[in-house]
Design a protein that fits this description.
This protein is mostly beta strands and 126 residues long. The protein is built from no helices and ten strands. The strands form three sheets. Strands 1-3-4-5 form a four-stranded mixed β-sheet, with no helix packed on it. A three-stranded antiparallel β-sheet has the order 2-10-9, with no helix packed on it. A hairpin with a 2-residue loop joins strand 4 and strand 5.
Length: 126
């Protein structure tokens, strides 16, 4: 399994066309102080959504392989640890154990000039 792409806040994560439609890709945010955070991006048409790579139920990574975050039919985000499923465009849980605030934590991104860019500010830290 290869390592996630490393990116700093404000940097381009990847060209939009590098993400399958639908598809997902893992990234590792590296902050100025050296702190790191695993996130992932999911493309759905011309839109891209990004989330922290942590299941809200067990606080474990969602994926089993670096860039695999979606169900087989690629319509929802899947936690491979206990089969919880989440909406791509909102991060809301649609199947799995119900807990308080059961949704994925969003990461701010922009699409500009055909590239997916991590926001310079507002990226969550754990």
């Amino acid at each position: 399994m290869h390592q996630p792409v490393r990116v700093r806040p404000g940097e381009v994560m990847c060209p939009l066309d590098e993400l399958e439609d639908p598809g997902s890709k893992a990234f590792r945010v590296v902050f100025e102080d050296g702190h790191e955070l695993d996130i992932f991006a999911v493309r759905k048409g011309r839109q891209v959504f990004a989330y922290v790579n942590v299941c809200p139920h067990q606080y474990l990574p969602l994926n089993w392989h670096t860039d695999i975050f979606l169900t087989l039919d690629k319509t929802q985000i899947l936690c491979v640890m206990h089969a919880a499923r989440f909406e791509i465009d909102s991060g809301e849980m649609v199947y799995g154990p119900v807990t308080t605030d059961c949704r994925l934590r969003p990461v701010p991104i922009d699409i500009e000039d055909g590239a997916v860019r991590l926001a310079a500010e507002g990226v969550p830290r754990f």
